[in-house]
Amino acid sequence: AGGIGITPFASMLLAKQPHGHITLLNFNMSPKNAPYRTNLEKLTNINIINIYDRTKRLHFEDTVQKNTDARWFVAGPPARVASVRPLLKALSVDDTMISTEEFTGYESNQ
Q: How would you label 38-61 residue by residue, b for 16+ Cβ within 10 Å and e otherwise?
C-alpha cells in the first residue's frame, strides 16, 4: 500500500483481525506521513514492513521473491500502482496474483 492507499487494508485489518500469514508492505515518504500507522502497529498477527526510502527496496524485493505464490493487493496513487505491478511481475509474481486499486485526487500532495 502507498499513502492513503492503505485505507482499504487498514479497514479490513482493523475491523476484523484476520488469521493466517499476512505481510503488509507500507510505502510512505516518512513515518509522520503514514496513515493509520499507529493503529496498525498495535496488530500482533500481521507482519508490517514500513518502507520510507529507496534503501529498503532490497528488503521489498527479498520479501516478494520469498512469496511469489502469494496473492498481492496493490493500492495507492496511480503512479505508484503503475510502478509496482511491473516490479512484481519482474520478480516472478504471476499477473493473475496481482490486484490493484488506484486512489486519485491527491497526487499534488505526494
A: eebeebeeeeeebbeeeeeeeebe
Which own/partner pairs from 48-52 qualify as long-range (CB within 8 Å, at least 24 positions apart)? 48/23, 48/24, 49/23, 49/24, 49/25, 50/26, 51/25, 51/26, 51/27, 52/28
| β-sheet bridge partners, residue 96 | none
pLDDT by residue (tens digit) across 27-53? 788 888 888 888 888 887 788 877 777
Can you give the pTM of this predicted structure? 0.69
State whether residue 48 is helix, strand or coil. strand
Q: For residues 45 and 68, is the Cβ–Cβ distance under 8 A? A: no
28 with 50: CB under 8 angstroms?
Answer: yes
